[in-house]
Amino acid sequence: MDKKEKGKVLDRLVKDFLQGAPGKAQCVHWETCNGCRVMPLPYEKQLALKSQILGQELGQFTAGQAVTVEPSPNQIYYRNKIELSCLNGAIGYRTREDYSKAFQVSDCLLVSKEANQIALTALEALKARNVSFHDPVKHEGFLRYLVIRESKTTGERMANFVSYSMVEEFQLQEAVRALREKIDVQSINWLLQDSLSDHSHGQVIRTWGEPFIREKLLGCTFRIEPNTFFQVNPVLAEKMFAEAIAGLKAEDKVLDLFCGVGALSIPAAKKAKVVYGIELDEDSARLARKNAELNEVKNTTFLSGDVRKRIKNLTHTFEYALIDPPRSGLGARLIERVKGLGPREMAYVSCNPLSLAEDLELFQPEYKVKSLKGFDLFPNTPHVECLAFLERVK
């Protein structure tokens, strides 16, 4: 069965669970919104669904034992980032029935009430200054996205306005000025994304206030910039990361693949001898170096570029590997190169059980799966994160 067919099977599983849902979702937007699909399920049923999803794809590595799923301490208000489309006069999510349209967000339960208020106040300021919204079909109009980020530990907030062009620069600046007068936002950024692709990131054109906000994880402080990837549920991610590095020894040399801004590398470096992080995105690698400096960690090295090429040039072995790849996973070639570096143990963080299952199969027979555990980083959605430990076969 290929990935497409497996995806259909998982989709049917979600629908089967929803058929037995006892009631209505608590969110006022649920009937219209394209997200929070499983919100009508009681939380224990959501966890059971996610355990079954992981078991269906990864059961071959657990000897038939159920995969436990760590619950999120918060089922609402847990996200530190939302990406809101600016479409048909609204700032919100795409509608369930028509993806080319958006509805106005006023009370999204995934983020704080303050984040919701930023969206409403921004809409008022933009409309008062006749800022046009982008049409992704006709490729007309100015503003594409409003991305709101907020730290769950420092309370700092960021608002990113992502535009298709620069033609309404004056109107946007006036709208931002009005927004800053009404709401306390530490960082406001204007980003340009002029490609035909529908993306919510881009080139930073101008910043009002600080160019970053700060989040804390495992006793470390991390700067988050407009285009930074960071786990969206930091409270539970902290527990997952703590488990990922629990097996480190003081003499270990650690390899962190797809290290991002160092959220795993830097806490790991406080326990290990040295950490090498490799990251595709140069901005993230730059920020990882800055975060190491910010936390006074001096035993890290961060490399940027194609992970497959960078790992090929490494000349020494590692005792431990941390792996947190994109949804597509690692693939056969990269897995062979990781094997060649000989780590005794690996902690593999995955947001996609389909690609994780393929990769775990490819690590055999040199490595075996020691344990698997789910983490519900995305309550009210069908998505689930998984932490797999692999150990070298002696």
Can you put this structure into words, describing what you see?
The protein is globular. The chain is an alpha/beta fold. The longest helix has 17 residues, at 3-19. It is built from 10 helices and 16 strands. Helix 7 (282-294) links the parallel strand 11 and strand 12 (300-304). It has a domain at 81-211: OB fold (Dihydrolipoamide Acetyltransferase, E2P) (Beta Barrel). It has an 8-stranded mixed β-sheet, sandwiched between helices. The protein has a 6-stranded mixed β-sheet with strand order 3-2-4-5-6-7, with helices on one face. A two-stranded antiparallel sheet has the order 8-9. It starts with a helix and ends with a strand.
Topology:
Layout: H1 3-19, H2 43-58, E1 69-70, E2 81-87, E3 90-92, H3 113-128, E4 143-150, E5 157-163, H4 169-182, E6 187-192, E7 203-209, E8 213-217, E9 220-224, H5 234-244, E10 253-257, H6 265-269, E11 274-279, H7 282-294, E12 300-304, H8 307-312, E13 320-323, H9 332-340, E14 345-350, H10 353-363, E15 367-375, E16 385-392
Parallel strand pairs: 1-15, 5-6, 10-11, 10-13, 11-12, 13-14
Antiparallel strand pairs: 2-3, 2-4, 4-5, 6-7, 8-9, 14-16, 15-16
Helix pairs in contact: 2-10, 3-4
